[in-house]
Amino acid sequence: MKPNYLLIIFLLFSTLGFSQSFDIGGTVKEKKSGLSIPGVNIQIKNSTKSTSSDFDGKFTLKGVPSGSVLVFTFIGYKTLEYQVTKTETSLNINLAEDTKVLDEVVVIGYGSQKKREVTGAVAVVDSKTLEVLKPIKVEQALQGTVSGVNVTTQSGSPGAALDIRIRGIATNGENRPTTIIDGYVGELGLLNPNDIESITVLKDAQAAIYGTIGANGVILVTTKSGKKNSKSRVSYNTYAGFQESSRKLNLLNATEYALLLNESYANGGRTLPYTNVTGLGKGTKWQDEVMSTGVPIISHDLSMSGGSDKITYSVSGSHLDQEGIVGQNKSGFLRNTARVGLNADVTDHLKLKTNVIYTYFNRKTLNENGLGSVLFNALNVPSTLSPYDSNGDYTLVPSTAGLGTEIINPLAQIANTYNDYSYKKINGNFGLEYKLFDGFVLSSSMGFNTSNSKSKDFSKQISYGGKVFDVNRSSVNQGAVNDNNYSFDFFATYTKKIQDHNFVATLGNTIFKEWGNGLFATGYDVPNNSWEYADISLTTGFLEAKTNSSYNYDERRLSYFGRMQYDYKGKYLLSAMLRRDASTKFGPGNKVGYFPSFTAGWVVSDESFFGQDKKINFLKLRASYGTLGNDQIPNNGYVSLLTGEATYVFDGDLANGRATGQIANPDLKWEEARKFDVGADMKLFSNKISIVADYFIDTRKDLLIPNIPVSGITGNYAPGSSAPTVNAGTVRNSGVEFAIDYKNQFSDNFNMSVGYNVTFLKNKVLEVNNGTGFIEGGAFGVGQPAPSRMQVGLPIGYFYGYKTDGIFQNQTEIDAHPSQIALGAEAAPGDIRFVDVNNDGVINSDDRTNIGNPIPNATMGFNVQLNYKNLDFALYTFASVGNDMVRNYERTLSDANRLNYVLDRWTGEGTSNSVPRVTTGATANNVFSDYFVEDASYLRIQNIQLGYTLNPKITEKVFVTKLRMYAGVNNLYTFTKYKGFDPGASNGAPIGGGIDYGFYPIPRTYLLGLNINF
């Protein structure tokens, strides 16, 4: 029995020995650069227990049996197996790049490719960049991070729209790129930035797989998903901060204003308005009155993700609340989002993918960016006026000729602004993948968007003292809009390898339908003249005229597409695509369009003659050419609908009715974008430096131009009618893109990443066939001709006005110069001297010419990220060079306030050759000229952030795997010579952009934030 006892004891100790387990952690880094790698899967071999590395490459795995083998896997890197012992509790793992697979897989539409095999101009923004930038809207993350992409804001007010332009402005219609979210058409600006895994921008013919919606470029968004065989991970991200104006304009104070106004009246031969300026002091700073400091912004985001060997999930929710720096709660934005993503391997052959997003936002707005806006009034109300009168009521701005009828007290304007807009949207997709046999996969996806919005604005009965904003009868406007669309994609992908020849074929079709309706109505005489009772159901008044309107629409698109990708040994790369689209937006003869494209690449560094050059690790040359389309025009342009107004006579009585609206054009067809691109991708010095360079030509033909002049006999001037839309223009954008990135690990404690990108762009109109040879747009002053044009040989939307040549110093100079009386008044010493462009001896409208271009010659971004031990630092900047801006926020009325540059005005011979005299008399100084056009080049520090991550050994004691705190500033400072609020703002119009009507400034935001992972 004794030997048996010994055997039992031996087995018991052996079992205890093997059952001993311990916790292990560590960091995963890239072997060459030393940079941390997030998302690496770490699994115990022959076990389902696993985890993944976090944002900083750190991981923790609990309950690891002694002697286990950990398997580290990540796309683009060689799989590493590491056997652990009980004595090891902290690992430093370095993964080597797989030379056969580049470090990224890029989404290219209806599939993906290894980055080394991509033959088009493609750029990627990852979740790490989004986490650093903390954009309120996702579009902001593309500014300065992607070459060839320019993002402009229409306003700094909360929730305002942003405009994305990929490789310039190509059409005078819709220029926004199409956004595809996990395979379906969506809206980029409504997404929660923390839900995004990556953003891929298709800039060239690579986007031809999307046919008629790809002409302006395509943005592909991949949302986050759980990882297989990983434990549940909970992340909470929050930040809170305050906002203030990033800029204020230098206006005349009360004393300066009064003295200047006296001078102006004296020069006009009128009685001085201020006989005594003593005691006026600085007066009211109206910008300080309407702009607040310490305006709050707060954001919360909670997400959970994980997965088993069959199912992965990702669930998130977010809340954002932002008040405006002008008007505060009268100008605010609130957004809530919720998302559920689920992937399941139903069988070994069938996979299910689903992603559903719910978005709700509420927005309140003020009158902005135009004549009579809040900031317009703040800039033009005299500083001698007080905000409140002796009774505590808002001061009335006098309705004298010198102040006009549109300048009012901006504080009263804010107080009497009432509106509310709420929007609800649910969108997502459901997809299936079925592996029929090895290499052949069938995919189907149903994407959908459905949204409902409600709007209400209330006009209070009020008098501002005889102004155009006086409201004699209270009213409330209410509207309800419902928009829907769905898309169904079905496609097959076949992958085949024959020795060194690799083929990937994709064939499928897309069905897309969008429909919706809107209903709007107005009610008069609101009870108690109060916002609380502002509802049509409570109004008691009525009008004889119609007070309601509605619309509905139903559009469809049927598409077929195919793509063949081929490579030989991964060195010679070819791809060909063809898409056929049929759209109900065009007439029977032009419904169908065909969009082919071809791309090719050559990985030169894989050739034997290239050798083993350690300086150049990777070199790929690529080229692409293709045709894409654009059908982003109003519906039903090829037919004439009863959308106009008419009055008819029946039995001697007048009756209101309907009439033909826009004149029909049955020959409408697609806009056609022909895109050409050649480029090179390089990696140098042990992959520490990456370079991407491209030269492109984008020619847009058959532009869909609205309001083509036609004979008045057709009745296009009747109420509600308009001229037709016609294919009648060609625009070309050409340029060069260059991006360089440097990444290096200097030591175990310090690494750095630096990036720079620049885009040089030239825009030229090649054709305008609308009967006049040009198209006008924009507005300047009151009653003046349109200041912007689209015309052959010049950039789209260039500024068209008079050139100036200094200031007349004396009468002799005036006598020697062509007469300027045709501009409205005879010149006098101190007035602007205009150039006789056509040398006909007289200054008149024929002397207007090109005086500026709102399109920048170059845009660039410079970004730095540093990591030292537990500290991290990031800096993002953006610059725009060569764009001009029109100063149109100054009212030319004699008594309006002015910017203080007028203190350098002409007051006598030799005193100034740039700023004209002031006078109440008639002059031509206010006609549109380059005097009002400024160089709006700028450099902006977009984001600066400093963070600190607590040691995981400390945080894990409270079951926290990561705790990072950070402080940051968004829109820290803008370096520019431009006098206005924001040199980078735009109203989004291709013809009429770059005209500053008093843009709401982008706020400077100070943030304190926290990232916690459990």
Automatic annotation (TrEMBL):
Main localisation, per the record? Answer: membrane
Q: Which domain of life is it from?
A: Bacteria
Give the bilayer topology. Answer: Multi-pass membrane protein
Q: Where is the TonB-dependent receptor plug domain?
A: 114-218
Q: List residues of the TonB-dependent receptor-like beta-barrel domain.
A: 380-972
| Cellular localisation | Cell outer membrane
* SUPFAM superfamilies with a match to the protein in the record: Carboxypeptidase regulatory domain-like, Porins
Which key words are in the record?
Cell outer membrane, Membrane, Receptor, Signal, TonB box, Transmembrane, Transmembrane beta strand, Transport
Q: Which InterPro entries match?
A: Beta-barrel_TonB (IPR000531), Beta-barrel_TonB_sf (IPR036942), CarboxyPept-like_regulatory (IPR008969), Plug_dom (IPR012910), Plug_dom_sf (IPR037066), TonB-dep_OMP_SusC/RagA (IPR023996), TonB-dep_OMP_SusC/RagA_CS (IPR023997), TonB-dep_rcpt-like (IPR039426)
Recorded family membership: Belongs to the TonB-dependent receptor family.
Give the protein's recorded name. TonB-dependent receptor
